[in-house]
Amino acid sequence: MKKPFYCGLAFLGLLIIFLIDYPALNCPFIYDDLAVIVFNPEIHSGSLAQALYFNPFRSVAYFSFWLQFQIGGILAQPIGFRIMNLILHWLTGLVLIRLAMLLKPGEAYLPALCAIFFWTNPIFLEAINLIVGRTEILLTLFYMMALYFHLKQTRSWLSMLGFFISYLLALFSKETAITLPVAVLLLSFYQRESVPWGKLLLATIIGLVYFIFRINWTIILAKSAGELSPWLDYFLAQNWIIWLASLKTIFPLQLNFDYQLGNYFLLGILFLLINLALIFLVLYRNKRGWLGLIYLLLYLPLMLVPLADLLRESRLYLSSAWLILILSLLLAPLLRQRRKIIWFKLFLIIIGFILLGHFRARVYESGETLWRDAVKKSPHKFRPVFNYANALRRKLELDKAQRAYLWAKQIEPENLEVERNLYLIEQAQKFSQSPETIKELIQENQ
To answer: Which of 176, 263, 377, 436 has the fewest Cβ atoms within 10 Å of its own Cβ atom?
Structure first.
């Protein structure tokens, strides 16, 4: 790819990203962002050591949050954090271009195809607009950078240094990066080159040391032990949910902020057999092709990500990037035919993705719009309904908030937080106080 075309493509990508996500930029901090950033004094007002110690195994992301607060002060606005996420997303696309050029140097249209699909796909909006999704973006950025340094033709000490620095940055962005040595091994087999056993051994040792320290660090579970799914049910559910996650990347229509998936035992067994059969085919045939990369590189990170209970699009960031890269590798030869119908269909798909992304970004305009969207798709789950009621309460739409709390009460009848908020609303309605007094009464529970 010539430099002027690369620069033009990079500028176009940045323009498209901001065009798609513009409606969401002014959304306030929401949900996970509140606990990790807003209500976390170690991040917004502590020292650097305190910020890193909050979660040392994701210290790259927390350093970036801390740094933005040092620049913007305690009143740093969410728009600054989202713009930084957008820029990091754009940079990840640029790394994907370089990676595509190394994987298939003869495909002239592959890098552009890969980048445009990556930048326009609405599946990535959750990772961008939920600010804590930066961990996923940084993981993918440094993961792909490490593979780029691995695949460079010149195996110089500089490439080796770049590989290990990127690997460490990926590890300390998110734990999923421990799969990187396996990805290097698979790519070496695909490229039919000698396996760099020394590099792999050192990378594996680094990953094991990291993993040992990680599992011995205090981990606070979001759920109590009695609420966690049995391991077998979780594992079987993961076997079919990873395919659903891939489908959501290819057809990003039914996107949601927060919804729960059931454990379908027989479906899990069926897809477990399918997955085992695919692994057998990959290992048995051992031929140069994209089957091994599609299956193993796509699903290896996903099997370490907890999707079986809570399917969040932000958790699909790395695997979705891989899938887009591999699909682009499969589609690029079609563009060499220079058939107008193929180019026209591709143009329609890209325009469709841009429009879908722009409309999806409107969901992130406020906490109310976000939770309303979640409630539409998860009407029987407590968290979206309860948080939607909270958003209405903060806007002083008391009648609507009361109905939403009663809805939440039907889902969890003994929840004390619901009872408390209903009591506050009833008191405000009973005494018909002035708007200022009602606002003071209602917002004391925020």
So the answer is: 436
